[in-house]
Write a structure and sequence with these properties.
alpha/beta, 5-stranded parallel β-sheet, binds zinc ion
Length: 315
């Protein structure tokens, strides 16, 4: 994904600050995944490091800096993310970053650090980063990327210039999806709640089939059919994140339909408890968040499906 149309506004405003020499020391790129925060951060890093930037602010792609960035070996570009065998960003990683930022720049330009996902820093790491943000070194930009910025300490958020990524207008999203070669952009966008990046990902990875599969499982359970253990097992082992997303959106669709006396994807209208259905929607979303943590996913999935089955009206 190159820079998308909905990136134009934040891009222009950062570019203006670059021209006047007032680039913030710390940026927080915040918003749901699928809106291209990563691509935006990469483009920004390239642009800051490029020695012959174009008028529109984009990197030239040919100077020594650009070549080094493309090769992943620019000494003034530092990536911090969760290490392979860990679940969070550690304090050692942040300390090493601070030490590097305290050294002088290798190429006389900017030093750029990208921290992603910034909301997955442990407490000590956050505290260490806060110290660095309080005493910024000249010529360095720290870019934090976060899908869930509310999980970041307020002290960190307040020290960053925030750039919010929001769902673009439907027409922009549809046009962009068409440009990406998606054959049925409207269906893909509906499937992903208006999030174009997710729509693209899911249209490439059989999102429609997977959603239908989830709907079938939930329908079977609510009709007293289906093997609970087998379904929980399958959902845990195969694309749990996407399944939980689809499950939650299906429940919401059912809720909306029931409120206007339509049948919805599960025809639960008759006798189903709508408050419980709304609670189940929350439970499915919470479960999705918990997939990232140390919770035992299979048990969690089983509990979720058991409460789904309990939603069905008595026959
Ligand atoms: Zn360049």
């Amino acid at each position: 994904m190159s820079l998308a149309p909905w990136h134009a506004e934040p891009w222009q405003s950062l570019l203006a600050r670059l021209r006047t020499g007032s680039v913030p020391h710390a940026l927080l790129l915040a918003g749901p995944s699928g809106l291209g925060k990563r691509e935006f951060a990469d483009a920004l890093a390239r642009s800051l490091l490029c020695t012959s930037r174009a008028d529109d602010g984009s990197a030239c792609g040919a100077c020594k800096s650009c070549v080094l960035v493309s090769a992943g070996s620019h000494p003034d570009l530092i990536h911090i993310s969760i290490l392979e065998d860990k679940t969070q960003i550690s304090v050692d990683q942040i300390r090493a970053l601070s030490e590097r930022l305290a050294l002088s720049t290798q190429y006389g330009g900017w030093r750029v650090a990208l921290i992603s996902p910034a909301d997955e820093m442990n407490l000590n790491a956050s505290n260490a980063l806060l110290k660095t943000l309080e005493e910024p070194s000249t010529g360095s930009v720290i870019v934090l990327l976060s899908d869930q910025p509310s999980r970041l300490p307020a002290t960190i958020r307040s020290r960053c210039q925030r750039v919010d990524f929001r769902l673009p207008a439907r027409t922009d999203a549809l046009a962009w999806l068409r440009d990406q070669g998606v054959t049925d952009p409207a269906a893909a966008l509906d499937l992903s709640d208006g999030n174009p990046g997710r729509a693209l990902e899911w249209s490439r990875a059989n999102g429609l089939e997977l959603r239908a599969d989830c709907a079938n499982d939930l329908r079977a359970l609510s009709q007293g059919r289906g093997n609970l253990l087998e379904i929980a097992n399958r959902w845990t082992k195969n694309e749990p994140e996407r399944r939980l997303w689809f499950a939650a959106t299906l429940a919401r669709e059912q809720l909306r339909a029931a409120l206007i006396s339509e049948s919805g994807p599960f025809t639960l209208t008759a006798g189903a408890d709508l408050t419980k259905l709304a609670e189940w929607f929350d439970q499915a979303n919470r479960s999705r968040d918990w997939l990232r943590g140390p919770v035992r996913s299979e048990l969690m999935m089983l509990e979720l499906l058991i409460s789904w089955r309990a939603l069905a009206p008595a026959p």
